[in-house]
Each structure stands twice: as C-alpha cells, then as structure tokens.
Amino acid sequence: MKPFAFLSIRTQIMTAATLLSVALVGSVVLVWAKTESNVYRQQKLNEAKLFSRVLSNTLFANHLSEQNWSQIRVNLDLLLRENEEFVYALVSDARLENQIVAASPGDFQDQYVPDIVPLAVTNKALNLSQKSSSVETFVLRDIKFSGRVRAKRGDRIMEVASDIHLITGQKIGTLRFGLSLQQVETAVANAVTQALVVGAVGLAISWVFAYILARRLSYPVRCLQVSAAKIAAGDLQHRAEVMNADEIGALAASFNEMSAALQASFSKLQKTLESFELFVPNKFILVIAPQGIENIKVGVASIRTMTILFCDIRGYTSMSESMKPLEIFAFLNEYLACMSQAINENGGFIDKYIGDAIMALFDDETTDGAIKAAILMQQALEQFNNQRSQNGLPKIAVGIGVHRGEVVMGTVGFTSRIDSTVVGDAVNIASRVEGLTKQYGCGILVTESVVVGLSHPKLFPLRLVDKSVKVKGKDEAIAIYEPMITVD
C-alpha cells in the first residue's frame, strides 16, 4: 500500500505541507544556528589572537627576557580577575625546556605538560610554526580561580597560543590562555531560540494556508464523492454542483456528462428490460437467470411444483380458414388480451402463446388462484362474445384444463438462440385435460391434484366428471372435476 493512501485528500495536502514546512523551517534553523555559531566563534577567535599577540609582544616579552616571573604572574592574575571569560593563562620559558614559569591559576606553575588540556593541544602550542594558533578543546579537570569555579571537567574552551620573541626575533617562550565558550554557546542558543520562534510562527502561518488550500481543493472533490454516492444509490438525475474553473471544475463537468449518459443508458436498459419481460415473465427470469439477464446461459434448470393452465379455442382451424391473415392477427390480439388479464390478476403468468392456445403457470403453494383465473377467463369470454355478436361475428368457445405437478423450468437452445421453456409430465397432463373438455362438453376441467391443493375448497364447489380417466401418454387413471360456481 502506498504511503498516505488511506488518508483523505485534505489530510494528505495538510500533511505534505506540514512536512515541507517542518523541513524548510528545520533547514533554516540549522543554517541560522550554524552561521551564528561560526560568526561568534570567529569573532571570539579574532579577538583572542589579537589580544595574545599584543600581550606576548609588549607586556610579557620584556619581563620574560629579564626572567621577571613574579611580575608576569601578577599580570596573569590581573588578566583572569578582570576577564571572566579567561579560564587559565600560562607562560612557558623556551630556555628552560618550556617549563611553565608563570600561571594563573597557580596550580600549573613549574609544570612542563599541565594536566589542564589534552597532550596534543599542549604539543601544538609549544611547537608553533606560526606566530599564534588556536584550537577548540575541553578541560581535563575542574579549574578554580579565587575560590570560584571557572570551568568544570569536560567544558568546551578555546585555547590560543602565541610565541614570545625578543626584538631580535629569537623565541624565548610561549603564552597560552584558555577562553570559555559558554558565552558563545549562550549566544548560539539564543540565536537558535530566535530561529525556532520565527520558524514556529512561519510553520503556523504555513499550516493555516495549507488548511485553507486543502479545504479549497478537497471540498469540490468531496462534492463529487457525494454525487457519486447518490448516483450509485440510484439517483441518476443528480448532478454535481461544482463551479470551479480549474481542472476539478472540468472533472465535475465530465462527471455530469457521464451521469447524463449513464441516465440515458439506464433508461434505455430499463425499457429494454421491460420489453424483454413482455416475452419472458419476470417470475421466469428469476428462475432461469438468478444472477441477471446478462448472465443467462443455456441449460439452466430448476425443478418446481406448479399449477399449469391450458386454454384453447375450439374449432379455431376451421374459423381461421375463412379469415384473412391480418384479420386473424387482429382477432388473436383482442382475444389474448381479454383472456390474459384474468391470469395476471390471480397471480399467474403466461409462459407462452401456442397459436390460439394459452399456457399459463401459477407458482403459488395453493391452486385457488388457478381455478379462479379459469372461471374469470370464461366470464371474460362471455363479454368478448357479446361484443362479437354486436359486430355480427360468430361466438367462440374455449376449453380450459388445469393440473398441478412437478415441472422443470429452464433454458434450451444453443449460444446464438436461447428459449425459455417448461417441460415435464405435468405439462402434458394439463394439455391432455384441456383436450378432454371437448369430449365431456365442459368449459373447465381440473385434476384431483388441483382439488387437493385448494386452501379454501368451500369457495369452489366441484362436480366430479370422471373418477378414473386415462389421458394420452399416462398409464395411471386420474379423476377430473368441473367448477360449478361463478366468481364475482
């Protein structure tokens, strides 16, 4: 996962701006502190070198040449007493193998290598190739002067050394003194504090501007996010209201164009789906395409126990021979519209039209809806015939057969042509029972399985037409009944 990928755009912008500001302020503070430290140290060094040259060439040269060591010691004590920055001062005589002849504090007098600084510092001071030298170092012990601690062990100091020469140029000794860097460090600390204060103010200002910038950039993006969520929830008429004139505004305009195109495509798809359902009922689609129409496949099948209704016009063949094709087409549309409404109103759906025949399915657990639909279909046929009579057309009669049993619903065909169908012994029996209506002169016949499936049998008085009749294609005899009431 990329860094900050889980953060919001506003947080990412503010985090990036804050990190950039911290890096910038840190760099400024570092450079500032480094510069101030170098300036203070260089200033202190220049002063110390000048001071050491003046002392070594004027005051100490004559006294050392005359071996007036006591006066040198007095001068050194006076030097430390008047200058708090001086930690120690040493004068060694080159003619006495660099023995320290005068020192302040006096602990180091008569020593050759004082235990005040590392040996390398002493060697450098006593073996000058130039008139003076300086080096930053640290003290090896606590140093006291007049009862007060001038430096503690480990404190940083600057040691300056200068040769003491006669007028003839002969080196007769070395002047060494250590300067405390406490004032330098204090000055550097003050400079760092000032830099940090300025940096903190700059950081606060940059954070405010970063927040404003992040909010300005993230707000339209959040608006687009909300708009996308609304469209994803189904509100395809929603449009993003982003008025920016920058790239985000262009993105919002493209987003709205996409929304409009998506709405148009969805409307077209919805109409296509509605038109498709006119050919294949929705209840059938849920069985043959449970994952959506786009995933429909050949061979999908489901076993169901259903009620099957067959309805067929008697004498349709001879009647159609006397009619023109367009007249037959108009007649079938009027007839099927009349008969199909009763099926839809009672929970059934039409599986297919087979010429003038209607095959309907009822997926209810009971058969009440199927019998009621059959009775209402006969009533609707009476009204249809009355209109035909008024137009001087002959009446028609239909037979309706109803049976309940196990069927297989699914798809058949191959990749370029798929059809939905219902197959099974129950479908054949329903078709055969419809054919028996002609033989027994009944408008409606239902099998015993339909009678057993009634939830309110008292609402549908039935007359036993034949308790043992064989239908074509089935070895076992079945009982058939005729409904005896009219449903309002």
Structural description of this entry:
The structure is a single chain. The chain has 488 residues and is of the alpha+beta class. It folds into three domains: 9-188, PAS domain (Beta-Lactamase, 2-Layer Sandwich); 235-279, no CATH class; 282-483, Alpha-Beta Plaits, CATH 3.30.70.1230. The chain is built from eleven helices and 15 strands. It has helices at residues 9-65, 69-82, 119-126, 182-232, 247-279, 282-288, 316-321, 325-345, 368-390, 425-440, 448-452, and strands at 86-93, 99-104, 132-138, 143-145, 148-151, 156-165, 171-180, 301-313, 348-354, 357-362, 398-414, 417-423, 444-447, 462-469, 478-483. The strands form three sheets. Strands 8, 9, 10, 11, 12, 13, 14 and 15 form an eight-stranded mixed sheet that branches. Strands 2-1-7-6-3 form a five-stranded antiparallel sheet, sandwiched between helices. A hairpin with a 2-residue loop joins strand 9 and strand 10 (357-362). Helix 1 packs antiparallel against helix 4 (182-232). It starts with 8 loop residues before the first helix and ends in a 5-residue tail after the last strand. The model has no long low-confidence stretch (mean pLDDT 81).
Features:
about 500 residues, single chain, alpha+beta, eight-stranded mixed β-sheet, 3 domains, Beta-Lactamase, about 50% helix, Alpha-Beta Plaits
Tally of extended strands?
Answer: 15
* Terminal residue distance: 69 Å
Q: What helical percentage do the residues reach?
A: 40-55%
What coarse outline follows from CA principal-axis ratios?
rod-shaped
| Proportion of residues in β-strands | 15-25%
Number of domains: 3
Q: What's the pLDDT, averaged over the residues?
A: 81
Mind summarizing the main beta sheet?
Answer: 8 strands, mixed
What Rg, in angstroms, do the CA atoms define?
A: 56 Å
- CATH hierarchy: architecture of the largest domain: 2-Layer Sandwich
Q: SSE order, as H and E?
A: HHEEHEEEEEHHHEHHEEHEEHEHEE
